[in-house]
Amino acid sequence: xxxxxxxxxxxxxxxxxxxxxxxxxxxxxxxxxxxxxxxxxxxxxxxxxxxxxxxxxxxxxxxxxxxxxxxxxxxxxxxxxxxxxxxxxxxxxxxxxxxxxxxxxxxxxxxxxxxxxxxxxxxxxxxxxxxxxxxxxxxxxxxxxxxxxxxxxxxxxxxxxxxxxxxxxxxxxxxxxxxxxxxxxxxxxxxxxxxxxxxxxxxxxxxxxxxxxxxxxxxxxxxxxxxxxxxxxxxxxxxxxxxxxxxxxxxxxxxxxxxxxxxxxxxxxxxxxxxxxxxxxxxxxxxxxxxxxxxxxxxxxxxxxxxxxxxxxxxxxxxxxxxxxxxxxxxxxxxxxxxxxxxxxxxxxxxxxxxxxxxxx
Amino acid sequence: xxxxxxxxxxxxxxxxxxxxxxxxxxxxxxxxxxxxxxxxxxxxxxxxxxxxxxxxxxxxxxxxxxxxxxxxxxxxxxxxxxxxxxxxxxxxxxxxxxxxxxxxxxxxxxxxxxxxxxxxxxxxxxxxxxxxxxxxxxxxxxxxxxxxxxxxxxxxxxxxxxxxxxxxxxxxxxxxxxxxxxxxxxxxxxxxxxxxxxxxxxxxxxxxxxxxxxxxxxxxxxxxxxxxxxxxxxxxxxxxxxxxxxxxxxxxxxxxxxxxxxxxxxxxxxxxxxxxxxxxxxxxxxxxxxxxxxxxxxxxxxxxxxxx
Lengths: 361, 308
Fold this sequence. Notes:
The complex is a heterodimer.
Chain A: E1 2-6, H1 12-36, H2 41-49, H3 51-54, H4 56-85, H5 93-110, H6 119-145, H7 149-171, H8 205-223, H9 225-235, H10 237-242, H11 247-271, H12 285-295, H13 300-324, H14 328-350, E2 351-355
Antiparallel strand pairs in A: 1-2
Helix pairs in contact in A: 1-2, 1-14, 2-13, 4-8, 4-9, 4-11, 4-12, 4-13, 5-6, 5-7, 5-11, 5-12, 6-7, 6-11, 8-9, 8-13, 12-13, 12-14, 13-14
Chain B: H1 6-32, H2 40-58, H3 61-85, H4 90-108, H5 126-129, H6 134-139, H7 143-161, H8 163-173, H9 175-180, H10 185-211, H11 223-233, H12 238-260, H13 267-287, H14 289-295
Helix pairs in contact in B: 1-7, 1-10, 1-11, 1-12, 2-3, 2-4, 2-10, 2-11, 3-4, 3-10, 7-8, 7-12, 11-12, 11-13, 12-13
């Protein structure tokens, strides 16, 4: 009989090994799924993981997309990972992303047609603040009333989506858009645009912000008192309190950082790759970032790689959709499977598997 | 008021509440056994598509409801295996269940959009349903509506008055003590999780077969999360979950009628109103810390691992 024995300390080898193993298992299970859909599994997996990077014909288009898609995922996941480490569950990043984009876009459009070089930086700040304030709603409710932050942050996503619909059809609608929903195009207007900084790389300000966030989070977690408090609160909440860590301050900080980064990601998206506020502006980065955070083991460097990998599945998924007619939702299932395998294999880093009967008590 | 008939509103309220009520009563039992399954949204939408496919292919709504419950239970089994045997984090696994369920249902439902399912028959004869006021409200529904109320009664009685209920609560309060007494903590929790999954799946099937009735991607639109909020609102008491579900169903039914009546309120605000009201109610409930804490299962969300 199999039996689990708790390790005194989580295994470092398995901490790195489980994400790799999870990806391999997901490829196998995903291949089976694609086969069940009547598609050639080997070709599907190759289209998703190999062709976007190395196939001569598509790589010139899809390689830059890697950074475009990974940027927001990494930026949001870095913010979420701090809270997840401390046991503070902000799962409403999608809403903070939307509100950040709306606030920043509204600020930029208020000065239309200004082309001031200060406009874009100011929009970034406003967008970041928008995301931060939206995340403060569950944060403050949690600290003042002990209201469950998981439910509040998630429910606020639906509220944010309603505001987005209102913005796209109402207060931010392009006055010259002949009545069609959607705002003016911010990406095609100098002063409000977030351009590709190096041609054909996909590098824009949001990607730079994501890299900065990775480094900042790494320094914060390893060299700073706040990072220590986050880790302590997650591993031993009681000890943290005796150590003088204020739970409320921690909740507000973690919520604030994750909301701010999500809002920032939204702003960079609306001024760059998306270009304008539309009803379906959000594509689920806020939720996929949760998978990225776990796949990266809540570690900044891990999240960097996880974000790139998840971006690859997005691009490869689109490619497989085009070439094989694979349904768009298949890739969503694929991403969900990855999270399942990851969570299932986590047991290996925290427990040893023993074969045989029970040891004497 | 605004040309809205209170009787049809009350009848619509009950139909609108039923999916949420079913999911909430299932989750209540799961949480009473000490497990926090945040995957209600995913299990509901799996129930919605499984039920829809079964109903459309067989032509029988009843097989549809059974398939919906089975679909929800099947998905919940993944959660059960991961959290109970592989000791994964319940919050993360629940989220994974929702993300996976939303994707899987969309994949399964590719060819089923724009189809109308066979109608689910009403339970009572025409004569009863034609009665003034009480007709539409009390007798105007199908079997599942009455089943959901009966389920609330059964869970309330079962948890409070039966030996099974006592064991479930014991496991949820202190799994180590329950384990010492010889109860199979993991087996009991897996069964509770399956029950919760079946209830959520049935609720989802009600959504796609009766409430809407058709299939669209992501059609649960947060109903699972509202069900989770209702369990908190109810302080883990079954009858209060019924009140909570009817309250939210009432708001959902009312806002749809206000939209149709073209009252001078922004549509976005009406769309967002069920979620905003849920948040407000959660806040009000959490201000009374002692009462909420008294009834919350003490071992909720904690990992059980029998060492030794």
